[in-house]
Design brief:
Order of helices and strands: EEEHHHHEHHEEE
Largest sheet: 4 strands, antiparallel
Number of strands: 7
Length: 209
Amino acid sequence: MATSLKRPLYVFTHLNGEFVPAGKLDMIEQNNQLLASAFVYGQRYIERPNALEIDPIRLSLRVKDQVRGKLLIPANGLTFFGGIRDATPDAWGRRVIESRHQVPANSLPESTYLLEAGSERIGALDVRESLTAPANIARGSIHALTYLMEAAERIEEGLDIPESLAEIFITGSGLGGMQPKVSVRDDNQILWLAKFASQTDHLDAISLR
């Protein structure tokens, strides 16, 4: 009989150009099923005048005394907070993470997808295993697009990723949508989103945004 496990994670928000710890998230999981979750804001975070609320419904900061020091659970019997769920990767990011673990689609615990999406996922949140864990920043160079495109093609084909192409596991894991894509930096360290043609596309192309 499968047993449920509680996985503690820490949620960070991006404020004034840096990540700051916002609170602790507990996820109760059984294999790849999320059974329940709970969140508590950090005392120092909640006193910040510029603190961002993690979820506008259940984790609202409009009345801070209502959430200060309290263990909060999702509303309406749901298992997860919508604001934190939005920080998990969509279809493409999940495929990248599954390729890294060499497992079938949607077979990993939700906490794994959330944790391995990296610090440059879409949105202002980051999730880490501890308060002291460093940010997982994509270092992919715009000059490495050819190699990253090859890695994306291998993921689409269900092939293993060699160590020489392993950068895809960081640059592509936090991105959503179905289209293969990665985050890369140019020579001025400006972050770009590079979209590649999929196997189902009729034209070969790279789009930078």
